[in-house]
Design a protein that fits this description.
Layout lengths: L1 H8 L3 E5 L3 E6 L3 E7 L2 E4 L4 E5 L1 H4 L9 E4 L2 E2 L2 E2 L2 H17 L9 E6 L5 H13 L4 E6 H8 L10 E6 L4 E7 L2 E8 L3 H16 L1 E2 L2 H11 L10 E8 L5 E7 H24 L3 H10 L1 E4 L8 H9 L3 E3 L6 H11 L1 H4 L14
Parallel strand pairs: 1-9, 9-10, 11-17, 17-18
Antiparallel strand pairs: 1-2, 2-3, 4-5, 4-6, 7-8, 11-12, 12-13, 14-15, 15-16
The chain binds adenosine-5'-triphosphate and magnesium ion.
């Protein structure tokens, strides 16, 4: 009786704890937090200086005693303590405006497909440590598919390709489960790194991470454009050590990111090859859906479609698909409970 009463008031949440962005969905409210997974720490006293947007603008611009870190790498937690603090910061932000007697929330959180038991437990512990009463885990591509409105519980094939910051998750789903899949530790961050490497090799210029990402977002594409698009990149001249400015075109960026793009396309193809024929037939008819920030790279849908011979569509608002999926799970928990992953606590692993 009391539990019911409190459940009514508790702000159950869905969290997309991504390598690049953390999003929080609160039941009956929608997405209340959408910020980069970045934390700034003062190393003199180990105190957190800034989190999210406030921390990201400090990247590459800090004095020696402040470090700006990204506690998740390749889709998994690399710095447990900082991750926990970051999640706590965001949960507190949500709760600040609410009643102080608010009970601790239940939290649905999305995790990549290819994670070890230890990595999965780390996510559960971090979310619980940050104040959740119960942690419910869902595979990221399943959450993305639900967010994109795919009929994942039906006996029909649905295909999702989620290109995030740290991981690309490729999955064919049917009857509420993943049938064939690949999880690559290669996504938007690797595109940025490829641009930094290219600028260094070709123009002898050292770019910062944010600059590389901005160039990618501004002029990045995977298929030739009708007209050349150009922008200036600013960095440090590797020879003189002084500031340097160079013009760079869309064709340069395509060349820079060609390798990781090809790897993603090849893995999409091999996932389709490993999918049972009945489901492949469904995919031909219904196509595959792209989610995650990488889906916004110009031309990626056309390229994947050309290469895989399957129609491709980008979901509306690809950056929020996963967290919207966790929100739908909260709204329909009775029905969707069966697609959640077992808690590591239940498995006897501790
Ligand atoms: N318009 C755009 N064009 C190209 N890439 C973009 C665009 N907007 C965002 N991105 C990239 O999308 C990535 C972030 O996507 P997303 O938020 O889906 O990742 P994430 O969920 O945090 O990571 P992961 O799921 O791998 O843990 C970043 O690498 C970012 O540079
Ligand atoms: Mg993601």
């Amino acid at each position: 009786m009391f539990k019911k009463f409190f459940e009514h008031f508790s702000k159950d949440m869905g969290i997309d704890l991504g390598t690049a962005n953390v999003l929080v969905y609160v039941k009956d409210q929608g997405i209340v937090i959408n910020e980069p997974s970045v934390v700034a720490i003062n190393t003199r006293n180990e105190k957190i200086v800034a989190v999210g947007d406030d921390a990201k603008i400090m990247l590459g611009k800090t004095p020696a005693h402040i470090i700006v870190t990204r506690p998740l790498v390749d889709g998994v937690i690399s710095d447990f303590e900082v991750t926990e603090k970051m999640v706590k910061h965001f949960i507190n932000k949500v709760h600040r405006e609410s009643f102080t007697f608010m009970p601790r929330p239940r939290v649905v959180v999305a995790i990549p497909l290819d994670v070890t038991e230890v990595e999965r437990k780390a996510v559960e512990d971090a979310i619980r440590g940050a104040g959740a009463s119960e942690v419910l885990l869902i595979e990221e591509p399943l959450a993305a598919a639900i967010g994109a409105g795919l009929p994942i519980q039906q006996a029909t094939g649905s295909m999702i390709v989620d290109i995030g910051g740290g991981t690309t998750e490729i999955a064919v789903i049917s009857l509420g489960g993943v049938v064939s899949w690949k999880s690559l530790k290669l996504a938007g961050d690797k595109f940025n790194e490829a641009i930094i490497q290219y600028a260094r090799d070709k123009f002898n210029i050292l770019l910062g991470e944010r600059t590389a990402e901005n160039i990618k977002i501004q002029i990045g594409s995977v298929l030739p454009n009708e007209k050349t698009i150009e922008t200036t990149m600013r960095g440090r001249d590797l020879l003189s050590g002084l500031p340097k400015e160079v013009k760079i075109t869309d064709a340069n960026i395509r060349e820079a990111i060609a390798k990781p793009i090809k790897l993603i396309v090849d893995n999409i193809k091999s996932t389709i090859e490993n999918t049972p024929p009945e489901l492949v037939a469904d995919l031909y008819e219904k196509g595959m859906i792209l989610t995650g920030g990488g889906a916004l790279l110009a031309g990626i849908d056309t390229l994947i479609s050309q290469e895989s011979k399957i129609p491709v569509a980008i979901t509306d608002e690809p950056l929020t698909a996963v967290v919207r999926g966790t929100g739908k799970v909260l709204d329909d928990l009775e029905n969707l409970k069966e697609i959640l992953l077992p808690s590591t606590k239940d498995s006897g692993y501790n």
